[in-house]
Structure formats: C-alpha cells, structure tokens
Design goal:
The chain has 465 residues and is of the alpha/beta class. It contains eleven helices and twelve strands. A hairpin with a 7-residue loop joins strand 11 and strand 12. Helix 4 runs parallel beside helix 7.
C-alpha cells in the first residue's frame, strides 16, 4: 500500500553473483567475466572461464555515491568475490560492511535462523548513526537461498500459513514439510524488513528515504535442494533460465509511503519494463549525481517511471508503462536445473512488448513471445508462460520483428568476452514448446505491431478498482 509495485522488472542474470554485479555497476555482468555464481575456489571459476571477483576498478554505484559525499553501507550477502585474493567490500566505495560469501573482516551471519535479524540489526545501527547525513545502504538478506534453518519459534509464528501445506508422504528421514521451512524463513525475513521500516519512521526518515525491495533471481529448483519451493506464479522457468521465471522478479519502490507528501505513488501497480542494470543510473539521477562521463552503461535512467505520482483513486491504481529508449538483453552460458521446460536458448532480448530468445549460432532455437500486459484494447492476455512461439507461425508475419531483435541481441553479444556455451536442447515434445501449425484464431493472437525500443504506449487506461 505504501509504494509502487513494478510488474515487469528483470534482473541482469538468472543467478546471484552476476545479477548483483548488474545492480552494483549498471553493466552486463559478462563484461566483467562474471557468468554464474562466483566460487571461493579459483580453479572452479577457471573451469567455467570466469573471473574470481568483480574487479575493484569497476565503477560501482556505492563508489560514485561515496565520492559525492554519501555514507555507504553494505550488510548481508556479498557474493562478488571470496577467493583468497579477492578484494574486500570496502574496496568498492563502501564505508561500512559486514558480509558473508566474501573476505570481509566482519563476517555477517549468513545461514543460521537469526541471519535476517542480525543483518537488519547491523542496518538499523548504520541508519541510526547516519540519520543526519545522506546515506546509501545495501541490505542483502540470505533468505530464501539454501540452506534455510528456521527455528521452532519462527515456524510457530507462521503456523496458520503452513497449516494448509500438504505434508503427507514424508520420507523416513524427513520430519518437516519443505513449504514449512521455506515459508517460516521468508515470514521471519519479512518481519525483519518491517523492523527496518519502523526504524525509518521512528527517525522521521520516511519522506527522505527511497526504498527498493527486490531479489537477485527467480526461485531455485526443487531438484537442487528440497526447500526450494518458491513460486514463479504464471511465469515459465526458474533460477538459471532466461524464461521469465528466472529473470522477472518483484520490484517494489517506496518514498514517503502513505505520508502527506510521497515522491513515489502509493498503492500503485506499474507495468514499465525495468532492469537491474537500470538501478545504477536511476539512483544517480534521483540523487542529482552525474554518471561519470567515461562510463558506458547497459542500463538507462528510468527515474521518470519511479518518481511519479498517480491520479487520485479509491483503490489500487493500475498504471501504464513509461517508454524506455533501450532494450534489455541477457545471456546464460550453462545448463538449467529441473524440467527441460525451463531450458531456454542462450540469449534473450526484451524490446517493448516482445521478447526474443535465440541460440548464439544461426540454425539453433529461435523463439518470440508477446509479453505485453498493456495494450490499447486490453482484450488480449499476455503470454506469461511463453507458450506460443510467434517465430513458428507460417508465413512469418513477425519476420521484421524477429530480424530486428535478432540482429540487436547478436550485436550486443559480440561486445561480450567469448566463452563456451552448454547446449540448451529444451523440450521438443513438451506441449509448452508453443509450436503452431496454423495461424491462431483465438482472441489471444494479434498481428505484429510496428514497435521499437522507443515505442509510444497507450496511456489511456482506467484507474482505480
């Protein structure tokens, strides 16, 4: 109720380390040779042709903020380098840090039942001491990564929620339902974030503080660990997949909440296409700090979509998207866990309403989906599950869209460091492959629109309700 929920937000990569590098730098993580989760063992990183850590000379958001007089902090997960020769977080423009998955001298609690509490305690202390000066703070919780170890008290706190969990059929050595473990840890993390927000209110900082809540990738697959029961809702794919379930994540922004003078619209749902790489230039724009002149970013300033009020309404406002001037692009080089339905092609690009996925080489998989929620008639349903591959339509009515987007993602890919790619065969016989024998006649199909990255979207939607 106190902020705007952005429904079309995408992280820079479907795995933790590269996704976090995208937030920190505004650049595609592959530019730093960060392709998957960074390992503390250099040999393991070398085996997948990736770096051991984010280079300390990379221009980070924290470094730019610090240089411009802001106090900077980072508490919780790091995962941007933990090999014996890795830099510590304070080498990236961070004044105070206490982290795990790092070489930080201050080792944060990463995996106990009290992890979220301890990370928020550190954050509250930092905010309290810096309440009279501008500050930028990363609070990176462990939950809901493996391993989850909620206490008996934490499980009891959400007993009403887990009572509906179907826990029949437990194995001999399994005493707790996986959903009970996952929900208890998540419920506690939510409670700790609530404590952090209460502190901002107690310090009269609500109307001065921009808050962003998100995550690093889609939920893990149950084939990797048993407590990985997070839901992707209607979206296909999970962690490691370039389908929406791997890269589209919640993004909630608040500034002023339900106070008298909010800067970000409360009780609003927005359909703007946003990316994790946009965070760097967007925060700098809001803080009235210039992006360093020599820095070339993959993200763009989308502050116009975020710092924006909605018309008065008696209910939740559903808001049309703000146009963006540059598409979002992704790559994933490795295998995908779980059902073969999750295994996407290796490259993806989102431009306006369309998303194209393709393999690196010509002759491989090629898929085009229409993900638009917002359209002039509101008479069609977006293909959230990426079922209906428009590239398979006979006569190629979308060929111009395919050619334009395919050329764009290949040109972008050519700027990245080379490296091996694991084949991604997908599911040739699975019904969600979306192969169409004829042009569909149902109301869910529409002819291709003349869209580009500067597309002007219909802005005449009803509000309220």
């Amino acid at each position: 109720k106190g902020g705007t929920l952005f429904m079309d937000f995408h992280v820079a990569n479907p795995v933790c380390s590269p996704s976090r590098a995208g937030f920190m730098t505004g650049r595609c993580p592959a530019r730093f040779r960060i392709h998957t989760a960074l390992n503390g063992n250099p040999a393991a990183n070398a085996a997948v042709n990736q770096a051991d850590f984010l280079p300390p000379n990379a221009t980070t958001l924290t470094a730019v903020m610090q240089k411009n007089g802001w106090k900077t902090g980072h508490f919780g997960k790091w995962h941007l380098g933990s090999t014996p020769n890795a830099p510590v977080p304070t080498q990236y423009g961070i004044d105070e840090s206490c982290t795990f998955n790092s070489r930080d001298p201050c080792a944060a609690d990463g995996h106990t039942a009290n992890s979220s509490t301890n990370i928020v305690d550190l954050s509250i202390d930092f905010i309290t001491r810096n309440a009279d000066s501008p500050f930028y703070l990363n609070v990176w919780l462990h939950v809901s990564h493996n391993l989850l170890n909620p206490s008996a008290e934490q499980k009891a706190a959400c007993a009403a929620m887990t009572a509906a969990c179907a826990c029949s059929g437990l194995s001999d050595n399994q005493t707790t339902c996986a959903h009970e473990i996952f929900w208890a840890a998540q419920y506690d993390a939510d409670a700790q974030i609530g404590r952090l927000l209460t502190t901002l209110g107690d310090l009269d900082l609500n109307e001065q503080t921009l808050i962003m809540f998100s995550t690093d990738n889609g939920p893990e697959d149950e084939s990797v660990y048993i407590s990985a029961v997070g839901s992707t809702g209607p979206f296909r794919g999970r962690k490691r997949s370039l389908y929406e379930g791997g890269i589209r994540v919640p993004f909630i922004v608040s500034w002023g909440g339900l106070g008298p003078a909010p800067r970000v619209a409360p009780d609003t749902v927005d359909n703007t296409v946003l990316g994790g790489v946009d965070w760097f230039p967007t925060v700098l724009a809001i803080a009235k700090i210039s992006v360093p002149a020599s820095l070339v970013l993959d993200g763009i300033d989308m502050s116009a979509a975020i710092v924006r009020l909605s018309p008065a309404s008696n209910g939740t406002t559903i808001r049309p998207p703000t146009p963006r001037s540059k598409p979002l692009t992704w790559e994933w080089r490795f295998a995908v866990a779980g059902h073969c339905e999750n295994s996407a092609p290796k490259l993806a690009i989102r431009d306006g309403r369309y998303k194209l996925l393709r393999d690196v080489d010509d002759g491989g998989r090629l898929e085009l989906y229409d993900l638009s929620f917002w359209n002039a008639s509101n008479a069609t349903t977006p293909d959230y599950h990426e079922n209906f591959n428009l590239a398979m339509l006979p006569g190629s009515p979308y060929q111009a869209v395919i050619d334009r987007m395919s050329s764009a993602v290949l040109a972008w890919h050519a700027t990245l460091p080379p490296g091996p790619y694991t084949p991604s065969p997908g599911c040739g016989t699975f019904p969600f492959r979306g192969i169409a024998a004829t042009t569909p006649t149902d109301s869910g199909w529409r002819a291709p629109m003349a869209t580009s990255s500067t597309e002007v979207w219909e802005d005449s939607a009803p509000t309220g309700g």
